[in-house]
Amino acid sequence: MKPAVCTPGASASSRPKRKACWCEPSPNWRRRRAGSKSDVPIRALSDVGYAIASVDYRLSPVAPFPAQVHDIKAAIRYLRAKEKEYGYDARRIAIAGSSAGGHLAALVGVSNGHSELEGTVGEHLQESSDVQAIVSFYGMSNLTTILSQSTPHGLKVRVPALQLLLGGQPEEKAELARLASPVFQVDAKDPPLLLLHGDQDPQAPINQSHELQGRYDAAGVPCRLVVVHGGKHGGSEFFDHQRLKLVQEFLVERLQ
Predict the structure, then answer these.
(1) What is the CA radius of gyration of the chain?
(2) Number of separate domains in the chain
């Protein structure tokens, strides 16, 4: 996987060019959002010294889980291998994403060194795929509970999506559903996490973020949940100046 990279402009040249990796949001892991490469919603971070890489991955109609995680980890290894070529600091990388991309960002982040999720994709297997911070916008965290938490609308969206992603429903693919759920991978060595979620989300219930925050709290790892009151599944309010400022402050604190 060769991600598209946006490096900081001249105004940010005096700042450290740390890396932020954006997992492209694919509606329900199934299709690519139109224009997603050209309008990465955290692109403004490049103005304050962060290099942004937009990462694609194989979608579920092409390849079931865990291909998506294997591809993203391959992209991170690629970014580390190309550090000097692009001119950023790849020692500390943050991963972020929204919706299905948020789910995958969290899963990649909490599975540093996980043998089943590492994969062998790409040409830079000697490089580390570890990340040092995670930002998840309205992502899923527990595929074994999401259906029981969903609205009728959410079920119409989620049931066919999980069928493609897992090759069956979570109760039929219980072991795979657990492997694909960030909540079951959390341990005390995981990187800090920032969650942003709307309390009126009809597709990914906010309980998904509450569950992940609970696992982080139990492991004693830094985690913050920002509730967007009235927020649904996406929208400009998640990426306005106020919320991106929170993301920037989180990265400044956690990528030192």
Answers:
(1) 17
(2) 1
CB 194 within 8 A of CB 246: yes
What is the predicted pLDDT for the residue at 34? Answer: 46
- Interval 81-134: pLDDT, tens: 999 998 899 999 999 999 999 999 999 999 999 999 999 999 999 999 999 999
Residue 137 belongs to a domain with what CATH number? 3.40.50.1820
In 102-201, the DSSP E strands lie at 133-137, 193-198
Range 98-131 burial, b when 16+ CB lie within 10 A, else e:
bbbbbbbbbbbbbbbebeebbbebbebeebebbb
Phi, psi dihedrals of residue 96, rounded to the nearest 5°: -140, 160
- The whole-number pLDDT of residue 20 equals 76
Rounded to 5 degrees, φ, ψ at 195 are: -115, 135
Measured in whole angstroms, the distance separating CA 210 from the mean position of its chain's CA atoms is 16
Parent domain of 222: 4-254
